[in-house]
Description:
Layout: E1 7-11, H1 15-27, E2 31-35, H2 38-47, E3 52-56, H3 64-74, E4 80-84, H4 89-97, E5 102-105, H5 110-124, E6 134-137, E7 140-143, E8 148-151, E9 154-157, H6 160-171, E10 176-178, H7 179-187, H8 192-209, E11 215-220, E12 224-229
Helix pairs in contact: 2-3, 4-8, 6-8
Amino acid sequence: xxxxxxxxxxxxxxxxxxxxxxxxxxxxxxxxxxxxxxxxxxxxxxxxxxxxxxxxxxxxxxxxxxxxxxxxxxxxxxxxxxxxxxxxxxxxxxxxxxxxxxxxxxxxxxxxxxxxxxxxxxxxxxxxxxxxxxxxxxxxxxxxxxxxxxxxxxxxxxxxxxxxxxxxxxxxxxxxxxxxxxxxxxxxxxxxxxxxxxxxxxxxxxxxxxxxxxxxxxxxxxxxxxxxxxxx
Length: 232
């Protein structure tokens, strides 16, 4: 008997798609709990442990964005993938601003969805960026395993994406982190929406690090970014 890999919360109001996704994930050795509205999904999340959430954006009772905001209050770390027919820039950016790890538009192939799930779960298990999981960044201490940035008398709990991005910066301290490399390492695809998402997360990291003037994330024109620490 194959071992169950991870447990996924699937919130999708389209019964045909929801049933198909649940059967596909179970066939791929995942445990998948399928619910048809956001309120039921939140109740499931309160009761059970999940490793990843697949949330449709347009759902009755409670939409996916509202659900994600409430899930983030309970757990700031769990990976979230939005499933939606909405693909405007504003919708995508709103999803990423809520801490989404990925955003896949309908229609999509099951193989593509599985690839994205596997990639995200590999990263959340700490396989990206080598074995090191703690860094001193100026006056900050960054613990990637705990997804925690400490400094200036404060502790900032980081989302999975924030952790992955800061880990990449730390592994390339005072060196250029190429934009396309970061996009493909974390977002898999370097398309427009993912590039905008990365910009949102870099803005967040800059905010977290601003209390130490010796630590900066600077733009390197035409190349990418650089985490600069004057006294590393």
